[in-house]
Write a structure and sequence with these properties.
Elements (H helix, E strand, L loop, with lengths): L2 H10 L4 H10 L4 H10 L1 H25 L1 H12 L5 H36 L14 H29 L7 H24 L1
Organism: Bacillus cabrialesii subsp. tritici
InterPro entries: Gp46 (IPR025580)
Protein name: DUF4355 domain-containing protein
Amino acid sequence: MNLEDVKKFLEEQKDNEQVKQYLQGLQSVSLEGVKQFVEADEDAKKWMQSEKDRFFSTSLNTWMESTFPQKLEEEIKKRYPDETPEQKRIRELELKNEEFERNAKIEKMRTIALKTASEKKIPADLIDLFVSEKEEATLENLTKFEEAMKPYIQEQVEDRLKNSSYTPPSSNNNNQSSTSLSNFMSAIYENQTRK
């Protein structure tokens, strides 16, 4: 079989699917061929995406190490042009003062919330959930919680009362129990005086 026979065979079989695939494999790789392959094949898409991600991560890390500190310094200089050491110290002190005032305000609101919560018999553990920077908002949060819990508590009390089988003692037992109580208290008193 020579080259002419191969050409003749391929020409006769050009509609055969196996021959088409074979010939396609013999074509040289081109950019368009690669693009079509990546778009058509799911595994190739995944591989290409992972390569893009790896390249992006490397580029981002390089940028963060080399360019970002310089850009950050430029932005700081733009916002705070040529600060003297004294000006920088004043700015830092102002920032610390603002933070201190904010913390003091929150602590004041926490104290108010604790006082209000104890008046309303709300557990102190929950206070931090209701504290806000403004007194009105803090008190409003506590009131909302109290109003939301009232129906729940009432329902729990009613359920307990329904399930309870307690019957109060009759009047005869009342005298006997008070006598037992006084005997009990006397025994405690005698025990304490012996010591």
